[in-house]
Amino acid sequence: MARFSPARSNKLSAEERRLQREAEELHRKEQELERQLRTLPAKLEAQRSREKQRIKLRIESSAPAISLNGARGPRSAKQSGKRKPLPARELQNARIKFLVLCLILATIVILLWRSIPA
């Protein structure tokens, strides 16, 4: 029968210890990766929500667009409803002022036309 030499058994036990340490290290790494896998989606979701809030704040704090008549965000003081019609008295006064100004303009045009030499 073959007998195992002590040097060979020492080599085997050293190799077994090294493999055992590597297995323990791999097990620790596996546990760390599983922990990261559980926590990473929550971190990513929190980061996305913070980024959305930053974008929303940046949009609200930016200058209002000219084409939107300044109606962007909660800062705008304009209301998005229809304008109130003028009262009848003010509407009549505005029409009279318009007609008087048109009459004055027509008078100026006629006077300039007469003063041009033929």
List the SSEs and their pairings.
Blueprint: H1 6-61, H2 88-115
Task: Write up what this structure looks like.
By secondary structure, this protein is an all-alpha fold. Helices cover 71% and strands 0% of the residues. The protein is built from two helices and no strands. It has helices at residues 6-61, 88-115. The longest helix is centred in the N-terminal third of the chain and has 56 residues, at 6-61.
Major beta-sheet overview: none
Encode the helix/strand succession as letters.
HH
Q: Percentage of helical residues?
A: over 70%
Please give the count of helices.
Answer: 2
Distance between the termini: 143 Å
Write down the overall mean pLDDT.
84
Please tell me how large the radius of gyration is.
44 Å
The share of residues in extended strands comes to under 5%
Query: Stretches where pLDDT falls below 50 for ≥5 residues?
Result: none
Which short descriptors sum up this protein?
118 residues, mainly alpha, rod-shaped
Can I get a quick summary?
This protein is mostly helical and 118 residues long. The protein has helices at 6-61, 88-115. Helices cover 71% and strands 0% of the residues.
